[in-house]
Amino acid sequence: MMKRYFSNLFILGFLFINSAAIAQDIEEMEAEVAKIENAFAKTMTDRDFDAFQSFLDPDTVFWSDGKPLRGAKAVAAGWKPLYESTEVPFSWKSETVLVNPDGRIVFSTGPVMNANGEIYAYFNSVWRKNDAGEWKIIFDKGTNLNQ
Q1: How much is the pTM?
Q2: Sign of the four-CA dihedral 141, 118, 39, 106
């Protein structure tokens, strides 16, 4: 009976420690992706189109203005005009990041600000960790508050 008690106690302790470690890992991943999302956003303020492209997964889909852009090449072509002017047309920042249980898919959302710093939309992005261990954006959709 005592052996069983200690065995169960050991198992409960292991599960508690393991779940605490998982929670810490999730929090660390969420912070990591928030930092990556904000680095992605910085490509717009820095006017660095090459850096923008480096965050795109080959299979990414960006959806805005009612039509999806499928694949990194299509997204790059669609977004290139936004990087050509010296003026920054908009900016965004990560506000909320959620990781799925397997730690390979992360959802990020936050405000999109116009050139005057006023919030006019919210973005919703999904990031996936690739086989090389890099986070790449696989889905993005903005929601305009005026529509």
Answers
A1: 0.81
A2: negative
